[in-house]
Amino acid sequence: MASQTLVPDLSTTIAGVRFPLCFMNASGARCVTRAELEALGRSTSGAIVTKSMTREPRVGNPEPRYFAFADGSINSMGLPNLGYHAYAELIPSLKAFGKPVIASIAGLCEDDFPDIAGTISKAAPDLIEVNLSCPNIPGKPQIGYDFDASERVIRKVRAVVDRPFGVKLPPYFDPAHHAAMAGVLQRAPVDFLSLINSVGNALVIDPERESVVIKPKGGFGGLGGAMIKPVALANIRAFWNAFQGRIPIIGVGGIGSGTDVFEHLLAGASAVQIGTALMEEGLPVFDRLGQELATVFAKKGYHGVESAVGRLKEL
Ligand code: RRO
Questions:
Q1: Of all protein residues, whose CA lies closest to atom 5 belonging to ligand 1?
Q2: Structure confidence at residue 5 (pLDDT)
Q3: Which class is 12-61+80-201+227-307 in CATH?
Q4: What are the structural domain ranges in the chain?
């Protein structure tokens, strides 16, 4: 009998939406303009995720506002985006690429969220990702660190959307905070979680120049890339444990290889998003991650994404 090579299945499902491949861009990475979003459509990204959109178009914070270094990146982009009306118009043509479109929405105040969500929902993206965790707007704390405000925003969005929606949360560093947010999500359910946003308000210093590396907020910004992977994995695991896998999770943070994707899946993610590695490597990162993940699966005897999700062993 001829030997059969099993091709691992890299597709996944989140909140009833099928993704042809389990990896996609993280909101913010190469997804602001129509040209960038269409390039994601033509790439092997498993979905098209928009930049977080606000009520009005924004140019964002002054440059330099993104800096990559050996183990990661720091950014303080300040929500540069086209404004939600432009994305609402774009979404139907993006759906023609035949992969899910995820609309990321943000707000500068609580009532922005339902206003934007209601309009965007009518444009029929496959999923809506509500960003409760932008760290980079001076004077605007991350909503995800205010549990009452998070619950109010989730309830207001739920009342106006007819698409599945999830929340993108900031990293939490104490089990009491995981429990507090899990309580919010018990009372005000969502259809998926995106974990985690950048580690906010970090400071990277260039010792040669004796200087900060980005301009906004005196150099403070959101940390991403390889160095935040353990923080991402911990948050994924904590929420996977809290809900026993009942809320699907999109893992974000520190993915640069197929093995990193595998670790996110083991912790409890059903799909992953790529930020720093996409910024640094460009769209070919998706081809490489697909090949590497298939190799990991084949070597370890996994037939696909679903068989790995949450399978982390404890000692
Ligand atoms: O635009 C940004 O500065 C930004 C956002 Br909205 C976010 O959610 N996370 C991030 O690292 N940067």
A1: 134
A2: 61
A3: alpha beta
A4: 12-61+80-201+227-307
